[in-house]
Amino acid sequence: MRKILNRNILVLTLISCGYFIFRVANSLIVSPLFDEYDSPNYFNLSFFPSIRTHGITLFYSIIKNEVAISVFQASVGALAWLYLWHAILIQLKKVSLKVIFSILFFILACSSVVVEHDSAMMSESLSISATIFLFGSAINLRSQVNLKSINSIYVFSFGIIWFLSTKATNSLLFVPLAIVLIFVAYNKLTKVKFSQLLLIFSLLGTFLFVSALSSDGTQSLTTSGTINNRLVFVPEWKDQLIKSGYPESALKIWERFSQQNLGMPPDQAVVSSPEFKKWWENGGDSFLLEFTLKNPDYAIFAPIVLPAFSDNLNYKKTLLSGWSQGTDLTYEYAEFKSSLLKRSFLWPDEPEKAYLALSITFLAIGISLVILNQLNQTRDISVILISIMLVIFWSYLNWWFGSKPADMARHNLSAAIMFKIIAIFATSVSLDRLFSIRKKL
Question: How far apart are CA 273 and CA 284, in angstroms?
Fold first, then answer.
């Protein structure tokens, strides 16, 4: 028995070291990607108001060196993925399923869509790592072994705060994640410890939430991008826009800067114009929120079936594209020409195949839920369903307030990865539970 245990520990150690070295090595052999428009703000630490979230700017402003940041992001990413791998692995009893799960897991964890962001001076790498860590802490929390552990609740709380600190739209999930934490922690902690945890969590979470809403510049750019990439193509939506006082000259500015390179992105050119600034000061800052609330068809259906509203819109502007495509920095930028990375079969290049892969992902989750329901595995079901609902709501927030077509894949990357992780987890756990019960019978 001891020999088997030692052999298992050796295998786990070798796999963990191999993955860690792979991530760090790839970050060293490629040149860091510095985006001239987005990256500079991540090196500017401002506590309030903040242009970018503190979970990124704090580390960037301290480390400063781009290569060192790449190595740091790769190291953090590797540890987060290994944490999730171990969290799921200990839930499985059947050895063959552990092997199959591990193969699928590391095919995803080693794909270019996941790893390439280690060398990009933007928020995606740490945001993905925080998301993966949070899911791993949730799985540890729901397990029978760790459910009574106070430490697992604290780790889960840390995971939420880290997640909230890495993207502005992440911080908007503060309330639903707080509800989950309170529900879990209330009966597991003493009143004193629960009160202390709730106080610290509330202060940090509220600060991150308010900070995310504090940057007027980010909100104006998002509004400009949303207007010119979506609303202008649907007559009814455009009419509401014009009635709000939006200057038609701003539409012409966008068109002119989109047709040729005039040294400034179209959205930046629009928000820099005096006409837009006047509209913004006279109520334009609340237009996007009010429009979303007044148009439930836009709020609920457009994120998925946007082309149904206009022939000039396509599925590249929908969440389906964001969930299925992933990013492609490895093939788009010269900085990554020496990369070791491949997309893998989980992220097909062709849109049709990518949508098919997404459909298979949802099908696997659905079948797994049916199996778990038949076996009365309520804890597994609750983790999967809560995760799915949060990911969908999170994606909608990204679409409503942050995803231009060019950024659809990048802004919804963590959600796209989460759907595949949930599918692998759900399939592995449901089959493991099924085989375990049959063996007992």
Answer: 14
CA 319 to chain centre: 12
* Residue 120, strand partner residues: 33
Provide the whole-model pTM. Answer: 0.89
Give tens-digit pLDDT for 85-138.
999 998 888 888 999 999 999 999 998 888 888 888 888 899 999 999 999 999
pLDDT in tens, 387-413: 999 999 999 988 887 656 567 777 888
Long-range pairs of 370-379 with CB within 8 A, sequence gap ≥ 24: 371/430, 371/431, 371/433, 371/434, 372/426, 372/429, 372/430, 372/433, 375/430, 375/433, 375/434, 375/437, 377/429, 377/430, 377/433, 379/142
Hey, where are the domains in the chain?
2-215+328-440, 216-303
Contact 410, 38 (CB under 8 A): no
Per the rule left: phi > 0, alpha: psi between -120 and 50, beta: everything else, 93 is alpha
* DSSP string for residues in 81-107: HHHHHHHHHTT---HHHHHHHHHHHHH
